């Protein structure tokens, strides 16, 4: 009778071999896509790389806000804050470069109005992510790991997105207080906006450290 240790070793070897085969299949698909559009092939390879990093690191935006209350751990919370700090500096530099040269600032079309819809949307999204045990990226990652329940979550994610898009104009007309949104550099200048955002991130990081220390005692 084969031992469980030998069975597990064979399973690991089998997974490794299938992983190598699957990797080359993904690479071949990327090369095929590059014959039609180089940009699409870049998206393809970038998505695969990000998915691998998320899966191996167990990085989850939902866990960043959920774990401090459930387990007291703020490890992922601090990782997200570090990521936000780095991207804040990077994107501020890119936008400042475009603004300095009188070019259209990239990403301005994503500045949305602020109002009750923002709060309601955040509450519903928060409830959904807790019930689903993950955000959009975590959901896709778990589907890849074989969690069939997340497929149901994905279906309702689509349904919710479609319904939200259908009713978006109604919310914008009735519950948005600042239709044009707020672009902080227009209010505080580039250096001031960068300083304020980084100060908030650093403050949250310090709070996260103290929160974990408090729950470790």
Describe this entry's structure for a reader.
This is Transporter. The chain crosses the membrane at residues 12-33, 39-55, 76-98, 110-135, 147-168, 188-208. It contains eight helices and two strands, in the order ααααβαααβα. With 217 residues, it is mostly helical. The chain has a domain at 1-57. It has helices at residues 4-34, 38-57, 61-70, 75-100, 116-132, 136-145, 149-175, 184-216, and strands spanning 114-115, 176-178. The chain is globular.
| Biggest sheet statistics | 2 strands, antiparallel
Strand content: under 5%
Widest β-sheet, arrangement of strands: 1-2
The radius of gyration computed from the alpha-carbon positions, rounded to a whole number of angstroms, is: 22 Å
DSSP strand count: 2
Instruction: Outline the low-pLDDT stretches.
Output: none
Order of helices and strands: HHHHEHHHEH
Overall mean confidence score, pLDDT: 88
DSSP helix count?
8
How far the N terminus sits from the C terminus, by CA atoms, comes to 49 Å
Shape: globular
Helix percent band = over 70%
Structural class: mainly alpha
What topology does this entry show?
Elements: H1 4-34, H2 38-57, H3 61-70, H4 75-100, E1 114-115, H5 116-132, H6 136-145, H7 149-175, E2 176-178, H8 184-216
Antiparallel strand pairs: 1-2
Helix pairs in contact: 1-2, 3-4, 4-8, 6-7
Organism: Acetobacterium bakii
Transmembrane segments: 12-33, 39-55, 76-98, 110-135, 147-168, 188-208
Protein name: Transporter
